[in-house]
Write a structure and sequence with these properties.
The complex is a heterodimer. Chain A is an alpha+beta fold. Helix content of chain A is 59%, strand content 15%. Chain A contains four helices and three strands. Chain A has helices at 5-27, 34-43, 50-62, 85-108, and strands spanning 32-33, 66-73, 76-83. In chain A, strands 1-3-2 form a three-stranded antiparallel β-sheet. In chain A, a hairpin with a 2-residue loop joins strand 2 and strand 3. Chain B is mostly helical. Helix content of chain B is 71%, strand content 5%. Chain B has helices spanning 3-13, 18-43, 49-59, 62-68, 81-109, 113-146, 148-155, 172-189, 213-217, 219-238, 244-266, 281-324, and strands spanning 198-202, 205-211, 271-275. In chain B, strand 1 (198-202) and strand 2 (205-211) form a beta hairpin. The chains are: A alpha+beta, B mainly alpha. Chains A and B meet through helix 2, helix 3 and strand 3 of A and helix 2 and helix 4 of B.
Chain lengths: 119, 332
């Protein structure tokens, strides 16, 4: 029986949620403002809605992982974000966690899509 | 910034906590400006209203975007929550009202009215809690089975966003009170409610106030204005945000009101006084100048307020027109 589309969508969103934070923290090793961050992420193949990105940035800043400042650039006030010292440490630990998980998953998951399925 | 973007930001802002709203909206504004600039660069021209609406639609429904800033799971989500407390107030209010009526009937029929009221009070708490629980359950069920976030994201239309950036929406209470006084005035003006017209001056001396004939000339215009005001406040209860139709109603109302005041000013004195037994000619003279003085100040203040409000409303219309015009931009 095929998996219902909404179940698959919910699983996909759950899988992406944690990785998006890692992608944002990783990109913010260099200073970015909201739109440039979204563009960088999109270029790297990570799509994120603005409606989710900006609240996430704010949350990460409240948690002390990011710092931000308003600055004028191109005749427009923009809020620039970058990793804080705590954020850099968190990124390091999360990256190690990600790599370990990735290695573990690689050993578990089938090598290609066609390989999966029935035992 | 286009009218749609301003309306979108104002709608988001109203759903955010006051302490952080301005900062969040400034950032969202920056994000939307950057996205629209990129869109303009891609198109080689300014985005049309439909294209701006598409950008906003992709950004997310205001209720959902504002809720993301709270960052916690809700038993009742952001789409249904604005209706949750009004529904609770209505349910509990109706329950309490029913019990108050029943308690009143029971106490009137009882030999011991105080005991009957106390017995009813015990029950009303239980029924109030039951009403709260039932309403909460209904909201939770709709939240869990209906997926309102998905529905609102699919069906919300940026072009139907209210114009909250022109004027803060009026509260239901404010409009309700205004409507109540409008109805009261209409009933008084049509003489369904008698108004005491006797002015006491001192012990044993008073005068009866009668309006000057000029008021008779504007009887129907004043009634029409009062009905228009009541219709406007009723309209506000349904559509509390600023809109052109309601604003036009106000402009017509204030302009006509100023015209009516001008007619009344032309027909001065505003009122006449008739002596009651025991009133001397000096009392009469003093009462006449007092009554007309009060009318002059009251109507003068009303004229000033209406003229200012008329100006403000015309300015809002101009602002709405200017924001609705296609934006001129120089795409990169």
């Amino acid at each position: 029986m095929p998996i219902a589309a909404d179940i698959l969508e919910a699983l996909r969103l759950e899988l992406r949620r944690g990785t998006l934070i890692l992608a944002v923290l990783g990109t913010l090793r260099a200073e970015q403002y909201g739109y440039s961050l979204k563009t960088r992420l999109a270029e790297a193949g990570v799509d994120i809605d603005e409606g989710a990105l900006y609240p996430m940035l704010r949350r990460l800043e409240t948690q002390g992982l990011l710092v931000s400042e308003w600055r004028e650039e191109g005749k427009r006030q923009k809020r620039f974000y970058r990793l804080s010292a705590d954020g850099a440490r968190a990124l390091e630990q999360l990256t190690a966690e990600w790599r370990a998980m990735n290695a573990a998953l690689n050993s578990i998951l089938p090598k290609t899509n066609t390989e999966g399925g029935r035992p | 910034m286009t009218d749609l973007v301003e309306r979108y930001l104002a709608t988001v802002e109203r759903r955010l906590p006051e302490t952080t709203a301005k900062d969040i909206v400034a950032e969202l504004r920056e994000a939307l400006e950057a996205t629209l600039d990129a869109k303009a660069a891609e198109l080689g021209r300014c985005p049309s209203t439909d294209e701006v609406a598409d950008v906003l639609k992709a950004f997310g429904a205001p209720a959902v975007v504002a809720a993301q800033y709270e960052g916690r799971m809700h038993l009742i989500g952001p789409v249904l929550y604005p209706w949750f407390w009004p529904a609770q107030r209505a349910a509990i209010g109706i329950t309490v009202a029913i019990f108050v009526v029943l308690a009143a009937i029971r106490s009137l029929a009882s030999d011991n009215p105080i005991q009957a009221v106390l017995q009813s009070m015990e029950k009303v708490l239980g029924w109030g809690l039951a009403a709260f629980a039932i309403v909460t359950l209904v909201f939770v069920l709709v939240e869990r089975t209906g997926d309102p976030v998905k529905l609102v994201e699919k069906f919300w239309d940026p072009k139907s966003l209210p114009r909250e950036h022109i004027r803060k929406p009026k509260s239901l209470f404010e409009s309700g009170i205004a409507l109540f006084f409008d109805v009261l005035f209409i009933l008084f003006w049509m003489r369904f409610i008698p108004f005491p017209n006797e002015l006491p001056l001192r012990e044993g001396a008073s005068v009866a106030i009668t309006l000057s004939p000029a008021w008779g000339v504007v009887y129907w215009p004043i009634l029409a204005l009062a009905v228009l005001a009541a219709a406007g406040h009723g309209f506000d209860m349904v559509r509390p945000a600023w809109n052109r139709v309601r604003s036009a109603m106000s402009i017509v109302g204030y302009a006509t009101g100023l015209g009516v005041l001008w007619v009344i000013f032309q027909g001065r004195p505003f009122a006449d006084v008739q002596p009651q037994p025991g009133t001397s000619p000096e009392d009469l003279e003093r009462a006449l100048s007092l009554v007309n003085g009060v009318f002059l100040v009251s109507l003068g203040v009303a004229a000033l307020i209406w003229a200012i409000t008329l100006g403000v409303e015309v300015r809002r219309q101009i602002k709405a027109t200017r924001l609705s015009l296609p934006e001129t931009c120089a795409p990169a």
